[in-house]
Each structure stands twice: as structure tokens, then as C-alpha cells.
Predict the structure.
Amino acid sequence: MLVELKELWKFRELLISMVQRDLKIRYKNSFLGFFWSLLNPLITVLVMTVVFKNFLGNDTKNLSAYILAAYLPYMFFQLCLMDSSQTILTNITIIRKIYFPREILPLASVISNFIHFLLALLVFFLFLLGVYISDRTLSPFQWTTLALPLLLLINLMLATGLSLFISALNTFYEDVKYIVSVSLYLLFFLCPIMYFSEGVYAKSMQHGGLLLYRLYHLNPVAMLCTAYRKVLVAPQPVSDHGSIYAPLTLDWVLLGVAGVISFLVLVGGYATFNRLKWKFVERP
Amino acid sequence: MNAIEIRSLCKEFTLSSSGAASFKTMLLWWKRRHVERLEVLKSLDLDVAKGECVAVIGRNGAGKSTLLSLLARVYKPTSGSVQINGRLAPLLELGAGFHPDLSGRENVFFNGIILGLTRKEMRLRLDRIVEFAELERHIDAPVRTFSSGMLARLGFSVAVHVDAEVLLVDEVLAVGDFEFERKCYAKIDEFRQAGGTILFVSHQMDAVRRVADRCVWLQNGEIREIGAPDQVIVHYEQGDAAHGVEPSAHE
């Protein structure tokens, strides 16, 4: 694996230009360009907020911020996996002609999605600032905000590892793409996006302890969604199914577990990719 | 030191009857048909000295393109080794890797970087590349609007301007009009005078006679003959006529 990493470093210029090219192509023929990638989460969150507040009677303060804080990283994760599943197949003509480390293709796709995610987070901070101006108790920064880079790192490792894995497998079995999209749909409900992990905690305690809560957070994406909320949104009592819960603090041990899992996924994904990458051109 | 060193190079491919692989074929492993293997190159040895120009001839399916792809490191050898000393630029099928929606300029830039240049180096020679391809007027339009001749000119121009020491050419000099072809040959001569090494595959015996120092006749994945182009070409054409239809590896 070290040999491969060295080779990748030699081709870093290509990786950079590939990312630039990716960003250019994505919005080449559209008028609103980058704003499309913001419009999608904004509209989704707007709809969710209206539905929750009015139809489901959820009166959590700052609800839109809570939803966005979990939905943006989920969306980044989703886009990474969906895009990367196609990267090898759409570039198969170049792969057949010229040598370069093949992992550059999924990596470039992950990085360009990551850049979009960072820009979206920037816009999110502006939104928080707006919230703060209207209500001075909702500060856009907490001391936990300092942990944001750590969350981004874990998130990036997880997304990269799975993208490498999926892009390699989808090259041989195009069924993978469909499995991924169904799994992502299910994953959405298994992550605290439309509800709160505080609610999961309360349910877990009803069923005799922390076990359920911990199992739930073994899913690194769920853990990341919970953590992003703790890190990005001022702690508030949250409401779920009519009950009010006090905000929990960030569980560092569970986050550490998610970090370890993500790192293993990255190593495993890269190893799988390297084992299969020479066969891409000879795909039967 | 030789520019290209090939040692007992073998390449096998797996033949598949069902076309695209799917989970079904993976899951139904007990129904999997006996895997057929196709030996395209059988223990090839070849040295190409620095500054030499070697042509590879042979019938379709003899393994010429596979050999070039192995040299370009697109395939991994089944066994044996390939060693290239110096920067390599493959000229396999011009314009591969161009993205239709990007402008000619952006594509040239990207293509140069795939061939191993840095962004800074590429910025310096962008104008020269465009000038050589004679596409100053069109270079900022998306390449989907380019004709195939324009694409070929642009691709050739990039490949000869990246300061490669070894050039792999796969039957591409026949593209472009007469005038551009002359220009390509001039550029290739210039490249060789500067000490560059060329390995090229061609079906055009005139081109082989004109450029090559040495000629390799490949038959069914093995070297049938190596020697002076005139001599090998004569044997090749005679051999062909004598055999009538030679059994090729694919059939």
C-alpha cells in the first residue's frame, strides 16, 4: 500500500487538475451553476421544517439548523457514493489508453464533492449568523465547534474508503450501483436527520440501558450526523413525538469508535481497489 | 542503457461468453462455464536502444496493440517484465481522454498533465501546442464541435510537445490531411534527432520503410522475424501471400 501511496503522490498534479476539471464539467452547461448544489438541501430542509412544525407538531427551537446540520453531511456522503460508482466506467476510454494511478478517478470525485460540502457549510454558518441576530441565545459557535475538523476528517475517510470500494466493484458488477442507492435510502432513516438522537437515547433507556443507543451509533454515518449537530448547533431542549428532551453532550468514545471504523473502511477500500484496479481494462 | 527492455513478456486474457459480468454470474458459480484463456503474447524478448525507431508489423490479432498497451502500462503482464527508461508518451488513438464539453484549451491542458507534466510546465507550452495543431481559431470552443481531423491534430500535438523520451505510436500518422501528415513526419524526424526513441505499430509498409531502423514481425504473439525493414517487409508480404489466410489468434 505504501508503494501505491508514493505513486499517488507522484501524480498529485493530475489529481488537482482532475478535481478542477470535475468542478468545471459539473456546471458547464447550467445557468445557476454552483447554486444548484445549495438549492437542493435548502429546499429539502425548508419542506421538512414546514412539515415537522405544522403537521407533526414539533416545536424545537432552531429546527431548520438541526436538520441542515445532519442533512448536509448525509448529502455529501450520498453524492460521494453515487458519483464514485460511475467514475471508472465513464472514464474507461482514458484508462484503456494511458497509465495513471486509477484511484485518482474516485478520489477526484470525492474531493470535488468535499469542496461543495465545505462551501455549503460556509453558507450554513451564514444561516446560523442570521439565526443569532434574530435570537441572541442561539450562538453560532460553541467550544465544541473546534472539533469540526475532526468530524470532517472522519467523514472524509469514511466517504473515500467506501467510494474506492464501490467504484472498484461497480466496474465489474453494475448491480452494485442499485444496491448502493437502495442502501442510501434506508440509511437516511437510520440516521438522526428527521428525528433526534436524544429520542433514541430515551427509548434505549426504556429498554434497559445504553445498549440500543450505542448499537445505533455504531453506524458511523449516524454517529457523524449526531456529532455534527452537537458541534454546529447551540444546544437546545429538543422535542420528539411530543416529549421534550434535554440535549445530550457529544459522546467522545462513540465518536472515537466511528473514527476507527472509518479508518478501517478507508484501508479496506483502498486495498480492495488496488487488488482490482489492473483488471478494470480486462473486464470481461 | 536501452530505452525499452522487454523480458519474456506474456499476456493472457480471459474470454467471456456472456459479455458483461454481473452478480448473477458471480452467484451462479457452479453454472460458470469453463473459463477460456487466450494467450496473446507468448514470451516476448525485445530491446530497443536509445534513439532507435522500431516498427512492429503483423496481421490483426498478432498482439501488436496488446504489446503497446503493455508498454504504456495499461495492462499488467501475466508474467515477464517491461522496463522503460525515460518519460513515455503513448500516442494510442489520438484524442482519447478528451472531454466533449470542455474547450480545446482545457482538454490540451488536462491531456498534458495525464502524460506527466506539471501545471506550470503545461501553461508554458500551451501556445506552442495550439500553434502546431493550427487550431488557434477554434481552441476555446468545446471539443464536441471539433472534426475528427482537428481532434487528431490536437492529440498529436500534445503528445509530441511533452518532452517524452519514448514515443509509442499506434497507426495514427494516417490521420489529418496530406499537409499535416508531412508536418508530423518532420516532427518525428526532429524528435529522433534529439535522441528520442520510437516504437510504432503500422500496417502501412511505406511508413515503416520511411521511418523505422528495425522492424519486428509479430505472428500469433511471437516474434517471427527481426531485422532491417526492407528485408522483413518482403518476407512478411511473401509469407502472407504463401499462407493465404493466416490463422489469427482471435479465430
